[in-house]
Amino acid sequence: MLRAEQLKKSYKEQEVLKGIDLQVKAGEVYCLLGANGAGKSTTINIFLNFKRPSSGKVYVKDIDVNLRPQEARKHMAYIPEVVMLYPSLSGLENLNFFSQLAGYSYSKTELEQFLLSAGLQQGAIYKRMESYSKGMRQKVGIAIAISKNAGALIMDEPTSGLDPKATNEFTEIVRSFSAQGRAVLMATHDLFNAVNIGTHIGIMRRGELVHSLKTTEINARDLQKLYLETI
Ligand SMILES: Nc1ncnc2c1ncn2[C@@H]1O[C@H](COP(=O)(O)OP(=O)(O)OP(=O)(O)O)[C@@H](O)[C@H]1O
């Protein structure tokens, strides 16, 4: 579903990505770890076509993101660290707006159902988003991803600032998202959550993907050890 091939990115003389190869297949959750500045966000931003690579390719469903960005965008949903939707609109109105932008026209019942399946409480659906917590805003972001029928969900530090209960709810939603055969790529500093939620883990150091492993091969304690030895 998502593939990077020999991805490189340089700013002037600084090479911040040094040939990243990674794949996220349908149903997989790939967690990208690494110290500040390792290149996680740059990798994600190239997948989203927010940044251009200096060389190498990224593909979504075999679509070259740089060559066919409009088509690639249809298959991807992005949830940034801070979900910035329209604060004066309700969760349902935001979802309606963004799903229409993606070319869909849903009934009120269908929109409600997307929000409920993303874990938003019924009572919040018609409230203005300015009153939402970060966890609630993320749920609207996930509902938008579901409504777009996106095969791939890309997230940058989704659990930062979430309390343990919200993190747990988020984990369950991402699990059900991947169980529907969708791919998830996320950058995170949360090692415990990465082992918990991920099917695969990549550890980056200074623009290189130094380790790429399955979460079935490692527990949280060993991952922490490996991480600290790596960075
Ligand atoms: N526009 C830019 N101009 C110059 N250097 C940049 C630019 N954007 C990113 N960088 C550099 O690229 C490197 C990788 O940054 P990136 O944001 O991808 O790291 P990260 O792993 O996501 O870090 P963090 O965990 O802090 O979010 C850093 O050294 C950063 O300073």
TrEMBL record:
Q: Does the keyword Ion transport apply?
A: no
* Residues in the signal sequence: none
Report the Pfam families cross-referenced here: ABC_tran (PF00005)
Question: Recorded GO terms, molecular function?
Answer: ATP binding; ATP hydrolysis activity
Q: SMART domains annotated for this entry? A: AAA
Q: Boundaries of each ABC transporter domain copy? A: 2-231
Parts forming coiled coils: none
Q: Which keywords label this protein?
A: ATP-binding, Nucleotide-binding, Transport
Q: What is this protein called?
A: ABC-2 type transport system ATP-binding protein
Species this protein is from: Pedobacter nutrimenti
